[in-house]
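Allow me, if you will, to draw on your knowledge of protein folds for a short while. I have a record of one protein: its chain in single-letter code and its fold written as discrete structure tokens. Could you please explain, in whatever detail you think fit, how the structure tokens follow from the sequence? The record follows directly beneath this note:
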Amino acid sequence: MDRATSPPSHTAGSTPYKNLDELRMENSLLRARLEDLLDQAHRNQHIMARHQRFDLKLISASHFEELISCIFSGLAETPELDMLTLILVDQRSHLQQMLADLKVDLHTFPHLLFVSSEQDIEPYITENGIPSLGKYERSLHQELFSSGEKEPASIAIIPLWRQDRLIGCLNLGSFKPDRFLSSMATDFIQRLGSIIAICLENVLNNQRLTYIGLTDPLTNISNRRYVEQRALEEIARAQRQQYGIACLYLDIDFFKKINDQHGHQGGDDVLCEVARRIKAELRLSDTLGRFGGEEFVVLLINANVQDAILVAERIRQSIAGKIFQLSDACQCQTTISIGISTIHERANTGDAATLAREMLLRADRALYEAKNTGRNRYAINL
């Protein structure tokens, strides 16, 4: 046979031509592999888009309640994530007090927990400060998931850092033992922790600015501007939900004598203690504010005149019934006079601003009646 037309010979170690069936099989396997890769790419794209939407919601949250709701609702959609808690460091409960004063109901977030110092969560944080993944151990991790009804099998603890300061931790739990393994990469959840920490710092700073602008700096209760704003909001809400509102206008009796006898520091001590005693008689939903000088105003939500009388009498007794300890080691006693007005649910119609002004004016007139008829008492102007 001519060399030019003879078939090529196979040498040792060379790969023989594959037959048609083998090529078809290999091609089919490659197509299946490519389809798997394409499906995975689509899934990854979907996951990334979901995370991007979640990030945007976090970043756009303008106040604390919105951010916490976003964190819990957004992460709840994560596959095989069965438990979630958020722990924040709150020294001397300042954060919780501020949020309560701003009418943030923390009871709506049972999986939001507070600790008094960084040391309370440091045992759960790794030495290098990165997220910790692995098996749930009851003796070590029980406090992190105490708000849940069941215990997780595997967990991820994500520290929340801001400017080298540990402000809390985000704790994820799964009933699947292999959901969070110590061998897994932590880049993604570490990034999540960074975003949440920044957003928390941002909304809390905004809340602090709001709180400062609406708070009396001496007594640390609301100022007049906040009470007037709150009155408009509560009257409008009461119109929609059909309940009554009561207003107490309070004035410390003979306050000038306290200043003359004990100086302005003594007067400040009395103002702060009076504010504390009034607040102790109120519910979280009620509002207390200093209107200036020795005058205070209380808004009682979903209350009638009988409710207002009970609260006013408790406040009166709390002021008159206990000696005031002053910072210069002196003591004094004082009393308080109270004017009461209400807006009955059937009378709560019309412009909220007008109703608020009339309610405060009637309470103010009742206060003067209490002053003129002996002090250390309440009077009513319906």
Q: What stands out?
A: The CA atoms of residues 99 and 193 lie 23 Å apart. The two ends are 124 Å apart (CA to CA).
